[in-house]
Specification:
Chain lengths: 238, 233
């Protein structure tokens, strides 16, 4: 949250710089089966974000010390390609990618029936090829579709979306400028069928009312995104 | 956008088939978390879960109803071993009296010395089967923890010394084999190759080189065709 309060990102009619209204999402496209050698894969193009997720497994967990006797472990690796942003990203794991991998694993573990595969590992690889704000949400959504495509048993699919505050107005699905110069950001992971929450982070400050408004936007958007995910799994290559 | 209630049990009809009237299934593709209707009087089969009084799907796949049982057969899945399955495995490691075999399942199998292809002295496992060798074996037992034991005692179970190995998704094996094995038999006749189709989706093809290549071409054809139209066996 840059705190550049004088940057005008939404006009008096509630139209944002990219022409969207407060509750509008960026265009989303989802495709499955993009990596033939993987057990399951998905590509999500969300605005200018491009993410690819690949699933390998369940497989024997190595090294053995990571094995859990009663369940499978999700080995999630979120990575941004060096060329994904205008500033080159140093390749390899960093503090940020480690954090996002961890929250993604925790969000996905709550829906995957990990008890069915004790002592095994499910490898989830998320690669961000182009980044434009909200990559963790795109990554979780892509991983969720890829898990379903891989035939991994799950109770629901996780839909992740973020809302935030720009110029004191709560809006849904921030783009790059809104994320950089906005005042707050609230990414959430939602189970669309039950309305449960599996992942919540907040950056910046929101009042209780603003938080509720952002929450409502996310919940509403989750259903729209879920429909696109279902269409991708039912329609295209399956 | 798919807003109609997909996969509702109530939408299913009773149709007649060659075996007489029976509950048939309109094959509907469902996704994880999809509500498949009320669980009243319904038994949960594979790939579904009863949550409260509803049945939900846990996999992406085709829903089917046989009698009172509702199940979802996944479109993509890893091979899960079952006792009696014929599998092609690769030796991944060995100790003095056990081989570890990769059979393409979530867990490696073990092949004890006593179930090996020949009489082995304690400590002589690598002389018989070395790391990297491929074998045709049969799943003897699968424990609750998914650990499985394979055996090489039986007809046709052997170390693979010639030919080529190929892989096909396990759910496409039905398409390769055809009704009553017709498609596979035809392919064997036409190409004059020996083909062993293992339940874990691996195939052993033995014969002249051109013939092997022809078989592999056809198998790849099945695979890519299935990917284009999204079918399962």
């Amino acid at each position: 949250m840059g705190g550049y309060g004088d940057v005008q990102m939404i006009d008096e009619n509630g139209i944002r710089a990219d022409g969207r209204k407060a509750g509008d999402l960026r265009p989303i496209e989802i495709e499955t089966g993009v990596i033939p050698v993987a057990d399951g894969s998905a590509r999500v193009i969300w605005g200018n974000n491009h993410a690819v997720a690949a699933i390998y497994g369940p497989m024997e967990a190595h090294p053995r010390k990571i094995q859990r006797q009663d369940r499978a472990v999700l080995d999630v690796r979120y990575n941004m390609a060096p060329f994904s942003t205008s500033d080159r990203i140093r390749p390899g794991f960093n503090r940020r990618s480690r954090e996002i991998s961890k929250v993604t694993a925790e969000a996905l573990e709550s829906v995957v029936l990990v008890e069915m595969y004790p002592r095994s590992k499910i490898r989830v690889e998320i690669e961000i090829l182009a980044a434009e704000a909200g990559t963790r949400c795109v990554g979780i959504t892509a991983a969720s579709v890829a898990l379903a495509h891989a035939g991994i048993p799950m109770t629901d699919m996780v839909v992740s979306v973020a809302s935030g505050k720009i110029n004191d107005v709560v809006v849904c699905d921030l783009n790059k400028e809104e994320d950089n110069y906005g005042e707050a950001d609230l990414p959430m992971g939602i189970l669309p069928n039950s309305g449960e929450l599996v992942f919540l982070q907040m950056d910046g400050d929101l009042t209780q009312e603003e938080f509720q408004e952002a929450w409502d936007y996310n919940m509403e958007a989750a259903h729209d995104i879920h429909r696109i995910m279902v269409d991708a799994l039912k329609g295209g290559e399956s | 956008m798919n807003s109609r209630p997909v996969g509702q049990l109530d939408n299913m009809s009773i149709e007649s088939s060659a075996d007489g009237p029976r509950d048939t299934q309109r094959t509907l593709v469902v996704v994880p978390g999809e509500d498949l209707g009320s669980s009243e009087g319904i038994e949960a089969g594979h790939g579904v879960l009863v949550v409260g009084d509803r049945i939900i799907s846990t996999k992406q796949g085709k829903m089917s109803r046989k009698g009172n049982t509702v199940s979802v057969s996944p479109l993509h899945t890893r091979y899960m071993p079952r006792p009696g399955d014929l599998v092609i495995g690769h030796i991944e490691g060995c100790t003095n009296n056990i081989w570890f075999v990769d059979i393409g399942a979530p867990f490696n199998s073990i092949l004890p010395m006593s179930l090996g292809p020949a009489k082995v002295e304690f400590g002589g496992t690598r002389k018989i089967l070395d790391i990297g060798d491929s074998i045709i074996c049969r799943v003897q037992e699968v424990e609750e923890t998914h650990q499985s034991v394979v055996t090489m005692k039986g007809m046709g179970l052997r170390k693979i010394r010639s030919g080529a190995l190929d892989e096909l998704d396990p759910h496409l094996l039905g398409r390769l084999i055809g009704k009553g094995g017709s498609f596979l038999r035809e392919m064997k006749m036409q190409t004059d190759c020996r083909i062993v189709v293992a339940d874990n989706g691996r195939l052993w093809i033995d014969g002249e080189l051109e013939n092997i290549l022809e078989v592999r071409k056809r198998i790849n054809g099945i695979s890519s065709e299935a990917k284009m139209i999204g079918v399962d066996a």
